[in-house]
Predict the structure.
Amino acid sequence: MIDVTLPQLGESVTEGTISKWLVGEGDVVKKDQPLVEIATDKADAEVPSPVAGRVVKLLASVGEVVPVKSVLCRLEEGAFETAPTPASKMVSKSATGAALAQPTVRKAALEKDVDLSQVRGTGDNGRITKDDVLRASAPAAMPPAVVPPPRVGQVAELINQGGGFVPPIPGKGYGSFKVPAYREASGDKVIPFTRRRRITADHMAYSKVVSPHVVTVAEIDLYRASKLRELHKERYKKEGLSLTMLAFVVSAAARALRETPDLNARVLEDAYVQLREINIGVAVDSPDGLVVPVVRRADELGVRGIVRSIDDVAKRARSGKITIDDLSGATFSVTNPGMKGNLFGGAIISQPNVGILRMGEINKRVVVVEGPEGEDQMAIHPVMYMALSYDHRIVDGVAANSFLWRVTEIIEKSEFDV
């Protein structure tokens, strides 16, 4: 017998959730054939069969969270005759191998997070209809989770024991405060959480609870950076690259992190670690929602290297080809609200980092500059506000302000090698 275990899917991944079994007990499989889909807090992955043989036993259920190295299933190695697939399990395919479905149906499947290759079509010639997608997306009926409220005196007991914190109950309330019940009204649209949205929501709530967030803001004159970008952007464009202000910010942040190591750190139970490598996570939109791929050793890269790294991971994120390793190991984060941004905002820290830098929109404003003879003059320059959110458990105001001041200085001087 061969035990198939959950492999180490990324350097920071310690467990995974069984999303979908791609085989059943008794099925004959080929070597390297995908057996199961695993969801992690970084990305999804498939576990392949290490040998050719037959599936003897599935040892983990869909929805179950399993640690790395846990046994997922057992295989009997050898050559076996493949049993015919029952008609009830057959999924019709087009000539190209893709599922038969109209574009509107494919759009609905994307919105409902439905894998069309696993849907049996009921339309003509096995074509998948919108009703087929809706049936496949309907969640199984599950009893609501019951979370008992704190018993009388429990709060005082926890405070006396040094605990002190009793979390609120999501959707219910806290203490004497109760969340009003939702009453459906005509025109309302209830949108179930996707798995990615649930992970993001839990991550953000956890970060706000464990990290005392403080936000500090700097105003940055982008006159020199914009001139430098205009001078070189066409050369980059001919190479298929986009020289954006984000690249300058990531480069400046990497240099400032080397000088302010408390911002390139993570908190342990009763200590914290100043991390040697500077790996900057850059928020990128993808079909599954916001992801944060990592530019590794950013302080060792010039602007060109950072542009190439951002361009590469952004393209793979948008095409759905991002890997777990691409999303693991960030020591600090930079987020850019894009063309339709706003003045500035305080982002929530991506755990286990202790800081995140959020760019604001770029607008032309009147600024005071020094004239050729040292006199003050008014000029119109592109200006951006940038906000640093930091974890006040280990980052003091002096370190945070020094870091943001240094980022501002580097960008305003714009002595970048492009």
Q: What stands out?
A: The helical segments are 103-112, 130-137, 154-160, 195-210, 223-238, 245-259, 303-318, 397-413. The longest strand covers residues 355-370. The chain is about 25% helix and 25% strand.
